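#help-structures

NK: newbie question. if I give both the sequence and a SMILES, will the prediction place the ligand too? trying with flavin-adenine dinucleotide
OV: yes, paste both and it writes out the complex. here, I ran yours:
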Amino acid sequence: NPFVPGLLANIVGSPLDYSYKTEKNEKACLSSGGVCTWPRGRMLSGTGSFSGMLYTRPSPSIFDNWATRLGNKGWSSKEVLEFFKKSENNLNPDLIEKDQHGFAGPLTIQRFSSQPPFADDILKAAEALGYKGNDLSGSKPNGLNYVQGMVDQGIRASTARMYLGKKLNQTNLVVKLNAQVQKINFSGTKATGVTFKDLKTGEIVTVNVTKEDTSYLSSYCHSTNSSTNLFLTLVDFLVRTSCMVADPCYRSECKDNQKLLNATADHDDFIAKLTSIRTSRNTAFIDDLIKKYASIVGNAITGPLPCGRRRVGVRPNNMLPLSKGRLVLRSANPDDHPKLITNYLDNEQDAKVLLQGVRIAQRIMLSESLKKYDVQLVFMTSPSCAGYTKDSDDYWLCIIRQFTLAENHPTGTCKMGPASDPEAVVDDQLLVHGVENVRVADASVFPTQLNCNPISVVIMTAEKCAQMVLDKNKV
Ligand SMILES: Cc1cc2nc3c(=O)[nH]c(=O)nc-3n(C[C@H](O)[C@H](O)[C@H](O)COP(=O)(O)OP(=O)(O)OC[C@H]3O[C@@H](n4cnc5c(N)ncnc54)[C@H](O)[C@@H]3O)c2cc1C
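OV: that's the protein plus ligand as structure tokens.
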């Protein structure tokens, strides 16, 4: 059930996931033959329905770059703020910069209910080393902190639930499930409607646009423009805790829901286990690592081992990689999975950023403040890395290329930009260049990567798009 936060790991890879795979990488994901998984949600709210629910926003400089340097009018940090606020109902006013947030929108944002003592101690250790966290959706997100999540009364606050759920009785709204769009129909440069397949009955249905200028279609935009990605590897530590009897169910290998919940138990509160997600207790953005290119997110993942030891995984993450990939259609058949040519870690610097993340994780986890937990680093092994001295930079760079994982934040396949930009697919009104009435409003339009989790920006973009359509129809 995608609504139960604690069961997140068991939805990825299920029939609710498109379960794409990347094309073969030469320099990453080598332990799995160069092929990485690419989970994408096939349900209302899309991938947002099995996301980690983390709600963070990028540095304002990201939007200012979109507006000033990349020529997208209306997208500066000051201009987009009203649309973030419009969507948000933040329930932790005392923990955030109040003027950066909304308190009356449909989307409930708050900290997860589980804040175990061990996570508190990690924050203290980080603070002692100069990584004190602030509002990770504020005016200058930085440092390590408890993250806020899209969670409402312990249940996933997906857009389907928080936006659509409240409007389902409206007579002017029809939500069609199991409808796979096959094509957009055109008359000249004007879209006249869409043709979709009912996946339950096999029926092919065409729906025409009835009102001019309101043809608003949001979906994947499969183009040949550049897309970028994030990637990470896990650095594991063993820490001592009181002896507990629990299954060593760790990471997403565990397909038994009860065991999965047990694995989150560094507290006894069953409700807290269900309503929180284990990957997201502490998150950090650490800017300016290498020539201001990099940020890092570390998520502490906890899972018990049977005899008083617990594994804590820290996930160093390159938020603004320099390597770029491409998404292209494999064929004209909409059932075929796209070709995801990701080129992970193609640029050497991207791997070095991850190495820096590994070192920061070590500094925090092996620091004086956490001594009481007797923390030990777990060395990952791979026959390909056997020739390197353990813990040397070369050893970690080898491990990073072996055990790369995508952080699942792809953007930019339908880049927003002026007509003069040869890579641009949509303009700053989100209208596809050369087409009169098709807008795209999803992560594909972001002209650059974000140094945050992207859903907040997807929702802001949708709010902004809705306003554009309303404004156009007023005239
Ligand atoms: C495991 C995982 C964890 C994540 N955790 C977080 C997190 O904690 N916080 C965060 O901010 N981000 C997270 N992300 C990233 C986030 O989920 C995505 O960036 C975001 O959902 C992208 O939104 P989107 O609207 O662009 O695409 P999607 O959410 O993927 O939505 C696309 C929609 O289009 C539909 N669609 C596609 N083709 C067709 C078609 N032909 N016909 C009809 N419908 C179609 C899909 O079914 C889907 O519903 C995570 C991603 C993954 C995979």
